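@channel sequence for tomorrow's demo:
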Amino acid sequence: MITDAGRAAIEAAAQLHVEAVRELFLDHVTPAELRTLADISGRVVAKLDDDPT
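structure tokens (generated this afternoon):
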């Protein structure tokens, strides 16, 4: 469970986090590379969803 203070901290950091991810990562990969990353991530998440632990 997240506290009100925790939620406020996340909300305060969200915009800076989004800007940093864009500047440091997304601005340096092509749309095709992003699609590849999405495909790989989808397979990893599907495997995690199959994990019985």
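heads up for whoever presents: The chain has a mean pLDDT of 94.
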